[in-house]
Design brief:
This protein is an all-alpha fold. Helices cover 74% and strands 1% of the residues. A two-stranded antiparallel ribbon has the order 1-2.
Length: 376
């Protein structure tokens, strides 16, 4: 399968996931703001084994999402658009600037407000791959494949940076023994991959155990998914139709798109929006809106402009700055990872305010990007 065919398949599956997650988020919002709101909170707080449903969404379902993201990252680094630094320089720089600028704007807004909470600086740093690609697939049938590749690379690198932030910043209490066990199990995964051991019943218990010990270590459990994805073999052996990474992505992408991400949206997006005037003046909401709607496009376009002016890196010939502006606006769709970081940064009313900002900003970014790309 060539890179273009692979990219098209990823776009199709992610688009479905984005649309399903959008429906789940809308259902959660309606449910949480209806007369049956108590039933919604009982639902998300229902204990199922060691976690309640809300934490199963954030720590469990999103681990599968991040595992698939880890597989995509590994593929891009080894055989995809990031394998040659010269080709990857423009979208990588755009992604890094697209993380830094929103974080700085959020910090400025909240540091200068009397009731500001600068601790949520990482909330507007993330781009939601599924939603951004879903919008692009709806409005972008006429756009060049290289533009889709640019967005995919941008979102993949963005996720890698935010994953590192989650691992470093949001680990308050570290249980070293559990972390060592989790890393040892991940190393066993890598050894089995290197020795070409196959069989899902070997890897499934290993993955579950790695996830559990990572969760117990105090490091966010989704890091286990990324780690195992990055340790999965991507290059095909002679005579092999699919590498293990391709096979796993083929099998798990539909599960992630159709179940994992929508379930997370359902248990995380139920934000009470009563007292809208208070939310409008909340520095956290303002910081998230400014970061995602303004900071993301400024960072992405600014990083792209700088790297093409100060180095020999160039845009593809079939890309225009108007198209890149649309992509930069779509990068402001934070949703999945931004909701996760909202829960990691705050609790209670503050978390709800941050989530409300994420949802509003994501809608605005999607509309602005879609309109820009439709008007070629």
């Amino acid at each position: 399968m060539d890179e273009t065919a692979f990219l098209a398949r990823v776009l199709r599956s992610e688009s479905v996931g984005g649309l399903l997650a959008l429906g789940a988020a809308a259902a959660a919002l309606v449910w949480a703001n209806s007369p049956a709101d108590a039933a919604y909170h009982s639902f998300v707080g229902f204990d199922l084994g060691p976690l309640d449903l809300e934490h199963w969404g954030a720590d469990g379902a999103l681990t599968l999402f991040f595992f698939v993201a880890g597989l995509e990252l590994k593929r891009e680094f080894v055989v995809g658009s990031l394998r040659r630094p010269a080709d990857a320089l423009v979208p990588v720089t755009a992604a890094v600037c697209g993380v830094v600028v929103p974080a700085l704007l959020f910090t400025v807004v909240n540091a200068t407000a009397s009731s500001g909470r600068p601790g949520g600086w990482a909330i507007p740093a993330a781009t939601d791959i599924a939603f951004a690609l879903a919008v692009l697939s709806v409005v972008g049938s006429h756009l060049p494949v290289s533009l889709r590749a640019f967005l995919l690379t941008l979102a993949v690198v963005d996720d890698l940076v935010v994953i590192a932030i989650i691992a470093v910043v949001f680990t308050d209490t570290l249980h070293l023994l559990d972390l060592v066990v989790a890393l040892a199990l991940a190393a066993a995964w890598a050894v089995l991959q290197r020795r070409r051991v196959s069989g899902r019943w070997v890897y499934l218990p290993l993955a579950v155990a790695t996830w559990w010990f990572m969760h117990e270590s105090g490091v966010h459990a989704t890091i286990a998914g990324v780690l195992l994805g990055l340790l999965t073999r991507v290059r095909r052996d002679p005579g092999e139709l699919e590498s293990p990474a391709e096979d796993l992505e083929h099998r798990l992408s539909p599960v992630s798109a159709a179940l994992a991400v929508p379930f997370f949206a359902l248990v995380s997006a139920g934000v009470p929006i009563a007292g809208g005037s208070a939310l409008v003046h909340d520095p956290v909401v303002i910081g998230v809106l400014v970061g995602l709607v303004l900071g993301k496009p400024v960072g992405v376009l600014g990083g792209t402009w700088l790297v093409t002016r100060l180095t020999r890196a160039e845009l593809n010939d079939d890309l225009s700055w108007r198209q890149l502006t649309g992509i930069a606006l779509l990068a402001g769709i934070g949703f999945t990872v931004s909701l996760l970081v909202s829960d990691l940064s705050f609790a209670g009313h503050e978390a709800d305010a941050a989530k409300a900002g994420v949802l509003a900003a994501s809608v605005l970014a999607a509309l602005a990007g879609a309109l820009t790309l439709r008007r070629r």
